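User: Predict the structure for this protein chain, please.
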Amino acid sequence: MGAEGQLVIGALAGGGLALAFFDQQSMFLIPAMLVCGVIGGMFWAAIPTWLKTRYNTNEILTSLMLTYVGLLVLSYLVHGPWKDPEGMNFPESRLFHDSALLPVLIEETRLNVGWLLALFIVVLGWILMSRHIIGFQIKVIGMAPMAARFAGFKEKRLVWLTLLISGGCAGLAGVIELSGAIGQIVPSISPGYGFTAIIVAFLGRLHPVGVLFAGLLMALTYLGGDSAQITMNLPNAVTGVFQGMLLFFLLACDVLIKYRVRVGAARTKTGVAE
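Assistant: Here is the predicted structure, written as structure tokens:
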């Protein structure tokens, strides 16, 4: 639930490095930005993780609240110390140097190296969840926590590992979005990609390969929403409405598949004692 905030903080960590070296060209700048993004996302995910393992707080609630804290940090930076002094007072940073932008794979498109990084993460996720004992332990502790404890699985360590990996991936996505499609720090780094990730996870059935195709489907909804705004004069919220309806019908299908809906009063059996 807190992937949106982790994405923003990761983008700020990587983008801050790009601003610190905005007038210098180096082949190591992009790798350093990606590493900073991962660290930033992990740091933001470590806060609800520590609260969960130390005080048994609800990680969904704490990570969701931290999302809005991250957005406020972003707003403060683009309106304050990181605002471009030559930007006509617009709340945005200066443009990144060319060495801080991800290389484009296909000319005259926005497809960049971030696509290859996403595929690499999918492969690593599949190996971890399907071919490694840690993936098996994560599945068990998610479906049957009591059984995991009886089996001797280290619950706190797995919680830390899972949430830190999630935060690192979200932070990496933030840097890729910032140094790929945007090229500077703006108040709206993400139109809600972190929240859309929840729908992607449900559509992909929590499988790395399924998540890949579900992510492509969600990308089409964003592109279609942009086209609908231009051609049909529809509001920007139409994309969110469609995604919400998609999640609603998906959950409804799960309920109808797993449970039988009966209409009418339940029949009671009566017996006669002899």
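Residues 204-259 form one domain.
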